[in-house]
Amino acid sequence: MAVLVTGGAGFIGSHLVEKLLNTEEVVCVDDFNDFYDPAIKRRNLEPALQSRNFHLRQGDIRDLSFMEGVFREFPLTEVIHLAARAGVRPSLKDPLLYEDVNGRGTLNILELCRKYEVKNFIFGGSSSVYGINNKIPFSEDDEISKPVSPYAATKRANELMCYTYHHLYGIHVTVLRFFTVYGPRQRPEMAIHKFTRLIDEGLEVPLYGDGSSRRDYTYTDDIIQGIMAARPPKADRRGRPYDIFNLGESRTTELGKLVTLIEEALGKKARIKRLPDQPGDVPVTYADISKSKGLLGYNPRVSLEEGIPLFVKWYQEMKVKR
Ligand code: NAD
Predict the structure, then answer these.
(1) Among 42, 66, 302, 307, fewest CB within 10 Å belongs to which?
(2) CB 101 less than 6 A from any atom of ligand 1
(3) Is 151 among the catalytic positions?
(4) Are β-strands 2-6 and 76-81 bridged in parallel, bridged antiparallel, or unpaired?
(5) Class of residue 65 by CB neighbours under 10 A (exposed 0-12, middle 13-18, buried 19+)
């Protein structure tokens, strides 16, 4: 019996795989695409590859026959589906690719869960589905029919398709809406990682808008705790076989303050370059986590003030190794 993690070589996936390997047989599917340097994804998996309970299958979730081979090879009890084209801004440049990977790829996996009777499905969703939501903090039952980027629209469409498969075939689905995740291995194009690199190298930091946009930043350890808390048997005991949960810290930080925290951790000053607001960006994200706390026992612990120095420490160690 094994757990399938799609996108297991990525930032969040590789941390999850390591955690699961403490108790489970884990199958990881990843295509090591070049959205960012695939060598980083190979490095992410180095600890997992030491374990005999780890099985890596390289391939594309859009390739149904490849994916079917994985479902045939391993008796799976659950799927944690994290493989996706991530990121708001790049989705404006290549919406067809986002639709193809996130839409068709997710449908392939749901189809195989139906065919091979895998009843537990966790979906790596996104706070971007809330769009420009004036009601804060964001609750799972907020009205969300107006996504403002192709990425957000694919993630919302994925949630709906998950519901359809739950309704038709009894698959237990837990959608987890992640709020900007950061920590060791964060994707290099994400703000915290990118700002850290630019400030460290003395290069200009492009800041979109007036610096007042706010995000709910979630540390990796907290996201992994939330994902683990959503797994069966706990999920089964909840008796809510399709459900959606926010995973955030439930605190928001202005962009300007974020830059200050990175400057302090690095001991260097940023050279800011102000740029206009980016289409597709939202002014604020802010998670209401009362449902996740109450039903999952989710309990985020790492504040941004603690997490940024931890991230910068990792960044500096990586720099020495490269
Ligand atoms: P990531 O890009 O580091 O991880 C995604 C992994 O999926 C990568 O290793 C990639 O190679 C793999 N992948 C992509 N397309 C694939 C395909 N067609 N076939 C097989 N593998 C494929 O991103 P991440 O930040 O770890 O995000 C993981 C998940 O969480 C994604 O679904 C993302 O949308 C979601 N999410 C992330 C954040 C965040 O802040 N990092 C926020 C909200 C939602």
Answers:
(1) 42
(2) yes
(3) yes
(4) parallel
(5) exposed
Task: Specify whether the CB–CB gap between 82 and 8 falls below 8 A.
Answer: yes
Give the pTM: 0.97
Q: Which amino acid is at 25?
A: E
Ligand 1, atom 17: nearest CA belongs to which residue? Answer: 60
For residues 20 and 177, give the distance between their C-alpha atoms in angstroms, rounded to a whole number. 20
**Do the beta carbons of residue 41 and residue 30 sit within 8 Å?**
yes
- Which residues are bridge partners to 125 per DSSP? 177
CB-based contact 151:88 (threshold 8 Å): yes
The number of angstroms, rounded, from the C-alpha of 279 to the middle of its chain's C-alpha atoms is 21
d(CA 312, CA 82): 25
Residue-wise pLDDT for 146-201, tens only, equals 999 999 999 999 999 999 999 999 999 999 999 999 999 999 999 999 999 999 99
Whether residue 68 is predicted with pLDDT greater than 90 in this model: the reply is yes
User: Does the C-beta of 31 come closer than 6 Å to ligand 1?
Assistant: yes
Question: In sequence order, which residues have a C-beta less than 8 Å from that of residue 34 and are 6 or more positions away?
Answer: none
